[in-house]
Specification:
By secondary structure, the protein is an alpha+beta fold. Helices cover 34% and strands 27% of the residues. Bound molecules: flavin-adenine dinucleotide.
Length: 405
């Protein structure tokens, strides 16, 4: 088939590569003027790694990321109220990977370029229309429309092809990338967080190295309500640093890297999904279909799983529309489960109200330390709840072999 993929992010690049390898003619479109390294840190879970492994890209991804063994969050009193250890999965050698979005993008983008897949930049999709046997993409500031037998919408959370909705969450986060302090106060195998109730949260996520020979880096993040962003910008950086070190004194060792407020990029998150994400010769995957707060660290991984499910369904027999519906059916339960889980967990760590943190600290955190709590938490964080890999015939990669020189 002649397939147009709108959106050259993580899901779009993965879908392009998988569909190209099946013999389809693929064209990628993105609004950016040139592919460039943007974003901050994200978590690559065993689910996402299973897809990358099938694509032959897992070792490359691991090489530029940072192995994360545990998630570890302390409240003001120094009590651990977020604990999840990949060792509790009971699967030898499996861990999460902190990785800069740019590194993951680069791994996929290099493979797409090597495959000779066309990426048309400066193509801002506005709308799509269905023809007799085609779906056309129409662009802003361009007369020409592009007709394809199938269009895959991978344009992320604000896709113009998906139903609009005011689903942005009150809390977002300020993010920046910093150089990892060698011999510093942080543990390189942890995603660490500090909370004051659920109203304040600071986090440190090791993200490996961008590019060969690059320095080790981490993402620093600070929870912030959208409504408070303007006030934050009006305040001085010194005031912000004082607030951070008041919550997490060890951050003092890295905050001199923060020279200007522009280094802290504000991201806000939408919690949304819609059904059915299939129209005539059009399918929506990744954040274009479903998005949530990054609290459970699943966004890039679910986009990779969706892309794989699409490639698997397109290989089956039957009408195109049925195959697109199959792609969604293969992913629906897992997507629904994680939409629900993320909605339930996010207020425990990001809320203006005090009671979710009280429930977290007094009830959920102590209870989750009792078996089978640790194993359940590890499975949730790893993205493996709901058994998404089995449905797709995917297996976890051999992490030890990937790490071997
Ligand atoms: C610039 C950027 C930075 C990000 N930074 C982080 C981060 O720091 N941490 C994190 O956890 N997640 C980040 N994300 C989100 C994360 O990458 C996604 O949640 C996840 O990878 C799902 O991927 P996706 O392919 O569905 O969507 P995305 O990865 O969001 O990709 C969407 C793509 O569609 C393109 N696009 C959007 N609208 C149009 C349009 N109208 N016409 C043409 N192209 C369009 C975008 O330029 C982008 O390349 C970021 C996303 C983007 C786009």
């Amino acid at each position: 088939m002649d397939i147009g993929i709108a959106g050259c992010g993580i899901g779009g690049l993965a879908a392009a590569l998988l569909l190209h390898r099946q013999g389809h003619h693929v064209t990628l479109y993105d609004r950016f003027p040139a592919p460039r390294p943007v974003g901050s840190g994200l978590m690559l879970q065993p689910t996402g790694m299973a897809v990358l492994d099938r694509m032959g890209l897992a070792a490359e991804a691991l090489a530029c990321g940072a192995p994360i063994q545990r998630l570890h969050g302390l409240n003001r009193e120094g009590v651990a109220v977020l604990e999840a250890d990949y060792a509790d999965l009971g699967m030898a050698g499996v861990f999460g990977i902190g990785i800069h979005r740019a590194s993951l993008f680069d791994v996929l983008h290099r493979a797409v370029m090597a495959a000779g897949i066309a990426i048309l930049t400066d193509h801002q999709v506005r709308v799509s229309t269905a023809g007799a046997d085609s779906r056309r993409l129409h662009f802003t500031d361009r007369d020409a429309a592009a007709a394809h037998e199938l269009v895959v919408d991978c344009m992320g959370v604000g896709s113009p092809l998906a139903p609009a909705g005011d689903s942005y969450l009150p809390f977002g986060a300020l993010w920046c990338t910093m150089e990892w302090p060698e011999d510093g106060p942080f543990d390189a195998s942890l995603l660490e967080q500090r909370y004051e109730n659920a109203g304040k949260m600071a986090g440190v996520l090791p993200t490996g190295r961008r590019g060969a020979g690059g320095v080790r880096e981490f993402s620093f993040f600070w929870s912030l309500q959208q409504a408070d962003h303007a006030a934050w910008q009006a305040n001085s950086l010194a005031q912000f640093k004082a607030e951070v070190t008041d919550l997490w004194p060890q951050c003092d060792a890295v905050l001199d890297q923060l020279q200007s407020p522009e280094q802290m990029v504000f991201a806000c998150y939408a919690h949304r999904s819609f059904a059915p994400p299939v129209e005539d010769r059009l399918v929506h995957i990744g954040d274009a279909w479903h998005s949530a707060s990054p609290q459970l660290g699943q966004g890039a991984n679910t986009a990779l799983l969706d892309a794989f499910a699409l490639s698997m369904a397109l290989e089956s027999e039957g009408e195109l529309q049925h195959r697109l519906e199959l792609a969604i059916a293969l992913r629906r339960n897992h997507v629904r489960l994680y939409q629900w889980l993320t909605a339930a967990f996010t207020p425990l760590y990001q809320s203006a109200s005090a009671w979710p943190a009280m429930v977290r600290d007094l009830l959920l955190a102590p209870a989750s330390r009792i078996a089978p709590g640790p194993a359940i938490k590890a499975r949730l964080v790893a993205g493996l709840a709901g058994s998404p890999l089995e449905a797709l015939g995917l297996a976890l990669p051999d992490y030890a072999a990937l790490r071997a020189p």
